[in-house]
Amino acid sequence: MTTGLPMTVADPSLPARVRIHEVGARDGLQNEKTAVPTAVKAEFVRRLAAAGLDTVEATSFVHPKWVPQLADAEELFPLVRDLPVRLPVLVPNERGLDRALALGAREIAVFASATESFAKANLNRTVDEALALFAPTVTRAIEAGLKVRGYLSMCFGDPWEGAVPIEQVVRVTKALAEMGCDELSLGDTIGVATPGHVQALLTALNEAGVPTSRIAVHFHDTYGQALSNTLAALRHGVTTVDASAGGLGGCPYAKSATGNLATEDLVWMLDGLGIETGVDLAALTATSGWMAEQLGRPSPSRTVRALSHKE
Amino acid sequence: MTTGLPMTVADPSLPARVRIHEVGARDGLQNEKTAVPTAVKAEFVRRLAAAGLDTVEATSFVHPKWVPQLADAEELFPLVRDLPVRLPVLVPNERGLDRALALGAREIAVFASATESFAKANLNRTVDEALALFAPTVTRAIEAGLKVRGYLSMCFGDPWEGAVPIEQVVRVTKALAEMGCDELSLGDTIGVATPGHVQALLTALNEAGVPTSRIAVHFHDTYGQALSNTLAALRHGVTTVDASAGGLGGCPYAKSATGNLATEDLVWMLDGLGIETGVDLAALTATSGWMAEQLGRPSPSRTVRALSHKE
Predict the structure, then answer these.
(1) Can you give B6-66 as a three-state secondary structure string?
(2) Which of A8, A211, A298, B111 is most enclosed, with most CB atoms within 10 A?
(3) Where is the Pyruvate carboxyltransferase domain (chains A, B) (predicted)?
(4) Domain count, chain A
(5) Any chain B CB within 8 A of the CB of A292?
(6) Is B162 on the interface with A (CB under 8 A)?
(7) CA nearest A310 in B: which residue?
(8) Comparing C-alpha atoms, which of A167, A157, A117, A109 is closest to residue A254?
C-alpha cells in the first residue's frame, strides 16, 4: 500500500463510527466448496478478531445435512469462544439453540425470508410459517439473556419474483422486530439493490416504527453495487454493516460467484471517510490472503487483490 | 437478467440524466495486452454506439511507439467517423492534432498530470512543461471548431507521491480550463479515492471558479471504490461520468489489473436510480461479452459476469 492512502477526508453527514459485522467465517465459508479443517476455521476467526473486528459471526448450528461445510460447529466454537469479541452463531430452531447454549454462545442469529419463493426454497415453508417456527427460539434465547439478530433475505430482489415490494419487506422486518430481535440485517441476497431503493426501504422501515439504530445492511456485490448501497445506508444513519473478509462466499442462488461485500473494500472506504471501525486494513488483508491460500483460489476482493499484488 | 431488475427508485437529489463518456475502445484497449484487429475495434465502436452510448472515445493519435495498441488510428477512424455519436480522439500534441483533423475528427482530448512524478513518468516533463506543450494544440483545436476535453491523471493519489493535495489538483484543473478545455475529466488513475475526498475536490474546484457542469469524473475500480465515488460525484451534481465497457483496461501503474469503472456496473446503478443514460444494458452487456471473447479473457465487470452467467 502506498503510504498515506486512502487520504482521509471526512463527510460530517455520515456516522463517526461503524460496527462491521464480519460474516466470512460463517456466511462466507458455508458457501465455499472447499472443505476447511476446523483448526483453520478457528485460526481464521482468531485472525479476524486480531485484525480489530469486534463482531465475528463464528459458525452455524443449522443441521449438518443442510450446511455440511459448518458441520463442525460443536468442535469449532469452544476453540474461539474465549476471544474478546462478539461471536454470534446462526441458529435455525430450538434444537440449534440448545446446541448453541450448551456451548456457551452469547449471541445468536435467526434467518427469515422477505419473499414466499425463497422461504419455500430455503425453508420449505411460507414466510409466516417460518416466522412461527423460530418465534419460540427467539423467545427462549432472549429469556436466556442472549442477543438475537434477525437476518432477512431477498429484501430487494428475488430470483423467482423479481423486484420485491417494499411493504412486503417492512411487514416481515416488523414481525422480526416485534418477536424480539434486537438487530435486523437486511439482506440483498442477489445483489440487485441500488441506492434509491436502499433509502426508500430504510425510510419505510422508520415510518413503520423500526428505528435505524436497530438496522444492519447486508449487501452482495453480484452487480458491483454493494459499496455504493452501503454509502446510501450510511447517509441514512445506518451504523452496522455486514461484510465478509476477502469477499468470501458466493450466493447459491446467483451463480456468478461474487457474493458478499468484501470487508477490505468496505474498510478502504470507511478509512478514507475517517469513519472509525477499529480494523487494521493491512492485518485484515493479510488474513484474507492467508485464507485464500487455504481455499486455493484468489480473493474476489478488489482491495485484497490490489494490496496483495504490491507486496 | 430477472425481469424488472433493478427496481427503479429515484433519488430526487440526484441528476435526472447522466452522459456516459465511454472510454473502452481507447483507454480500455490501449491497456490490453492482446492485439485487436482494426475491424474488430471498429465493430466494437459500432456496437457501443448501437447500445445507446452517445459518446464513444474512438482511438488515440499518440505516437505508435508509446501506444502500439492504437497504432492503427488512421485506418480505424474512417471506419467509424460517420456514426451518429460523439467520437472524441486522444491527441498529445500538434502533430497528433494534424492527424486527427486530416481524418475529420470533431472532438479531441488532451491529457495532463496532477503530479510531478506522473508527468515525469508519462511525459518526461514537469507538469507546467506538459501544459505548455499542448497549449498550442488546444488553441488550434478550438480555432478549428473542435470540442476539447482535458484529462487530468492522479487527481486523488499517486503511486510515488501518495495522497495528492487538493490545491495541486485545483491548480492544474484551472490551467486546463483557462487554456480552453470545455470539459475536465478528473482521473483517479490508481483508484484510491473515497467519497469525502471526491466531494472535497469538487467543492474546491467550484470555489476556484470551475463549475460542476464542466467536470467529468473518471474513477478506477482498483480498490472497489469507483461506483461509490461516482455516487458521491452525482450527489454533487456531476452529470458526465467516464466508464469502460466491460471494465476494459487496467492501469499500467497499478498492476492488479482492475482498471476503469465498468460501464455496465454504472448503468445498473443509474437504471436503478431512474437516471436516464440512453443505454440499453442488455445490448451493452452482450457487446462486452463479445469483446471479452475477442480478447480471450473474462470481463472484470461484475454485472457482465452476473448477467452472462445466467444466459
Answers:
(1) CCCCCCCCCCCECEEEECHHHHHHHHCCCCCCHHHHHHHHHHHHHCCCCEECCEECCCCCC
(2) B111
(3) 18-285
(4) 1
(5) no
(6) yes
(7) B255
(8) A157
Q: Is A251 a catalytic residue?
A: yes
A172 vs A181: CA distance, rounded Å: 12
Output the nine-digit C-alpha cell for B202. 469538487
Phi/psi class of residue B278: alpha, beta or left (left: φ > 0; alpha: ψ in -120 to 50)? left
Determine the distance from the C-alpha atom of residue B21 to the mean position of all C-alpha atoms in its chain, rounded to a whole number.
Answer: 6
- CATH number of the domain to which B103 belongs: 3.20.20.70
B27: cell is: 483507454
> Does residue B8 sit within a domain?
no
Give residue-wise pLDDT tens across range A172-195. Answer: 999 999 999 999 999 999 999 999
Range of the domain at A295: 19-310
Q: Is residue B2 in some structural domain?
A: no
| Closest chain B C-alpha to A61 CA, distance in angstroms | 30
**Range list of β-strands (E), A117-239:** 147-153, 157-158, 162-163, 183-188, 215-219
Dihedral over Cα of A14, A20, A21, A22: its sign:
positive
> Which residue has cell 490508481?
B190
| Active-site residue identified among A146, A186, A215, A251 | A251
Q: Do residues B54 and B263 touch, judged by C-beta distance below 8 A?
A: no
Judge contact between A1 and A221, C-beta under 8 A. Answer: no
Element (H, E) at B295: helix B281-295
Phi, psi of A215 (to 5 degrees): -100, 135
Mean pLDDT by runs of 10 across the 311 residues of chain B is 82 97 95 90 98 98 91 97 98 96 98 95 92 94 98 96 97 97 97 98 98 98 97 98 92 59 98 98 97 91 84 41
Say how far apart CA A190 and CA A158 lie, in whole Å: 7
Contact A7 B157 (CB under 8 A): yes
Which residues are B59's β-sheet partners?
B89
* Inter-chain residue contact B10 with A196, CB threshold 8 Å: yes
CB pairs under 8 A between A and B: 189
Residues of B in contact with A305 (CB under 8 A): 256-258
